[in-house]
Task: structure prediction
Amino acid sequence: MLRLPPFTYIAPNTLQEAAEAMSTHGEDAMLVAGGTDLYPNMKRRQFEPKVLVGLRNIRELRRISGDSERGMIVGAGATLQEVSSHPTIMEHYHAVAKAAGLVSTPPLRNMGTIGGNLCVDPRCNYYNMPHQWRKAIGFCMKKDGAGCLVAPGSSRCWAISSSDLAPVAIALEADVRLVGPKGERVISAEALYRDDGIDYLAKDRAEILSEVHLPPADGWRTTYWKLRRRGSFDFPILGVAARMRLDGDGKVEDAKLVLGAVASRPVEVREARSRLTERWPTEEDLAAVAEAAFNVAKPMDNADGHFYWRKRMVRPYVLGALKELLEVPMS
Ligand SMILES: Cc1cc2nc3c(=O)[nH]c(=O)nc-3n(C[C@H](O)[C@H](O)[C@H](O)COP(=O)(O)OP(=O)(O)OC[C@H]3O[C@@H](n4cnc5c(N)ncnc54)[C@H](O)[C@@H]3O)c2cc1C
Ligand code: SF4
Result:
């Protein structure tokens, strides 16, 4: 049985106290929300914090407010179950409710939060393993070692962004509020992520993601398609988040497409906007966007399923998501 290492648990009641505790304990401290990813990672010694700063006592993190006209503010501590079953989110932010409802299993969705999901550690088959397993193969640069076992010779880590909600937040052009010891700021979800399997968040480690700001629904249609081996359980090995707005005649006014689990951060497929907007998309337009998505997806051999199969699945998943938004039957 894998056991947790010893640690000190701090349970602040306010965001400011939590940020100050993170600042005081520096590199020794980590934030914990639901703990559904952090605790298993600690058991495998991927993380070895001496201090955990728990967020569960901070009431303001649980709040979900706003409406589809003004936009919604979703507290980072809202559980995935609360997000996926919220009536306004279900009705007006379909992709958010769907992605949250597809994370793992019901027990993990009851504990896991939207903030923890957006900050979840990138994954790799050579890293998400028990300490003894990693020791036997000589470790890697993400923890305890030097090189990369997937791309030997690489100076960077290629662990995969495996959050279901990260590509959705970017596709919807959501913002996130960060609260740190020196103050707070609001940045786009797009700006939160770096293309690096180790240093994957563009925020100070003491900063707490406190809210997700969803923009006004404003006629946008959204969806999320997820590929995984076991439909009841697994992390995504491909995520397709799409957003589209049509005018009264069915012409596309604007579109955005973001892929998850194909790199160390979510990847936007810019051709979706340039190829689909200001027109009634044809089968050729949709196929061109699917091809562009295929080209930008660069899965590596470090997740479930053969990497080339994961890449080939990009085309049908993108087509499926776009056709769902256009209400075109699948051919
Ligand atoms: C078997 C299994 C299957 C899973 N399947 C999926 C899946 O299909 N899709 C998926 O996306 N995830 C999956 N997960 C990962 C995880 O359960 C979810 O991502 C969950 O939403 C994480 O939320 P949490 O509150 O439990 O985060 P925690 O485990 O508490 O934290 C995760 C990370 O986020 C940081 N963090 C937490 N909250 C904040 C905050 N407010 N501000 C800044 N940093 C913060 C923590 O320090 C930690 O690094 C799975 C995990 C397991 C064990
Ligand atoms: S991509 Fe390379 S460095 Fe990163 S976790 Fe995997 S083996 Fe380690």
